[in-house]
Structure to design on (281 residues):
């Protein structure tokens, strides 16, 4: 029968209900079709109400698989005994930034450099090798040049230029690179500082940042020769929506309705990490 139907998500921080698909044809088809948008990984219920009757379906938002692994930067230069840490960006097929995935690291030649489980590279001896980062079977490669002599640095570059963190305690990686007058990549020794009025984030000796509070701050890498560059880090705390209670009825409760055994899967919305480069402050 043709009756108005209201759809409600019990946790809109996991699943949102969008406009009905084919609204003009709703009077001629059954069952009605509702469009769901997955916001984040999780499990909740969808409630359909019409008059005094309700029914529920379980909705599961699965994590999107890793489609792209991107190492940042694609090459570094070190002196023997020095360390640096690569950043790694994981993307879905839709280009959404993924978090909470396992990344496995490997070094191409342990006689030249080693790499830890966190992506920290230790230069061992002069030479050229590579490291790989693998997540869910997807691999990316970056180069490591270990040189025994130093060259004056005329320019320092920090990458990425912008970071967007969406939870307190979230971590990300900045990397500083030095360039000689001929634009060749050369080793440098950097100190990291944060320009902030309040303690919004912390940065370690290798450029790893941790979100402490909501806001925006500049992270600066200064090479011992005096050249420097910076990146802007913005921290945002996503607040889960308050669950919406289903309408009260005199009939059966939502928990007494038929539960669909097959979950509805929706793609997570993009979060975004790296943005457009900005001018150094």
């Amino acid at each position: 029968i043709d009756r108005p139907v209201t759809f409600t998500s019990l946790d809109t921080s996991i699943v949102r209900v969008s406009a009905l698909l084919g609204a003009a044809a709703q009077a001629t088809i059954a069952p009605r079709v509702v469009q769901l948008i997955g916001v984040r990984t999780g499990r909740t219920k969808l409630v359909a109400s019409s008059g005094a009757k309700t029914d529920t379906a379980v909705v599961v938002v699965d994590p999107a698989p890793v489609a792209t692994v991107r190492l940042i930067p694609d090459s570094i230069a070190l002196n023997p005994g020095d360390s640096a840490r690569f950043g790694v960006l994981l993307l879905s097929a839709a280009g959404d930034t993924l978090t909470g995935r396992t990344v496995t690291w490997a070094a191409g030649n342990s006689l030249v450099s080693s790499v830890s489980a966190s992506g920290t590279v230790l230069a061992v001896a002069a030479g050229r090798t590579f490291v790989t980062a693998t997540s869910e079977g997807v691999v990316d490669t970056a180069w490591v040049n270990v040189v025994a002599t130093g060259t004056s640095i005329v320019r320092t570059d920090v990458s990425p230029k912008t970071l967007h963190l969406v939870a307190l305690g979230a971590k990300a990686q900045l990397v500083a690179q030095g360039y000689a007058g001929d634009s060749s990549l050369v080793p440098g020794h950097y100190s990291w500082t944060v320009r902030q009025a309040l303690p919004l984030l912390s940065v370690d000796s290798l450029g790893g940042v941790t979100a402490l509070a909501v806001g925006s701050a500049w992270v600066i890498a200064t090479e011992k020769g005096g050249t420097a560059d910076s990146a802007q880090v913005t921290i945002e705390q996503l607040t889960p929506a308050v669950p919406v209670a289903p309408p009260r009825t005199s009939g059966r409760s939502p928990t007494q309705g038929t539960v669909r055994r097959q979950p509805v899967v929706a793609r997570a919305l993009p979060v975004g990490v790296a943005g457009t480069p900005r001018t150094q402050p």
